[in-house]
Structure formats: structure tokens, C-alpha cells
What does this fold into?
Amino acid sequence: MTESMGNLRRLVLDVLKPLDPSIVELVQLLAEQKGVDGVNISIYEIDRRVENAKITVEGHDLRYEEIVSVIEENGGSVHSIDEVAAGRVLIEDVETPQD
It folds into this structure.
């Protein structure tokens, strides 16, 4: 990702991952990536061999491709990008009448 593409600050990914490595191991690997300030992994469904996880990564100048590579190298696959934020500040969702 080049600097001209913007300052990627938050990624929320829906990920299917094997039981091994554990989320403790995976969160530590992701936290070591350049630009990452924090990572949260929440499991919302467990099968016999896989877990569905929501992975939230926050930082400065996040490198999407590198984050996905860490997930894939550990047997996971990104199903969707559920949220993304970029810029100098993080903007939280605001409830509107449509919500």
C-alpha cells in the first residue's frame, strides 16, 4: 500500500480460521505488524474444525495486504471486510433515523 492511498486506521474483518493457531497466538502475530496499535479477536461461532472470528485491527498506516497475509499464512481466510476507516482521526458510527 502506498502513502498516497491514505492513512488506513481501522479494519474489521470477518474471518474463518482453523482452531490452531489459537486466537491468542493469532492476535499476537497481528499485533507485531508494522503500524498496528491494537488488535481484538472475537469468536462468534465454533465448529468442529474452524472458528468464525471478527478481527478488529487499529493503528496508523495499516497495511491491509500484510494483515491478510498473516491471517492466510495461519490457515485463515477473510470472508468480508465489515468496516474500514482512514484519515487523521477515527470516526465512530452515528445513529441516524434510518437505523
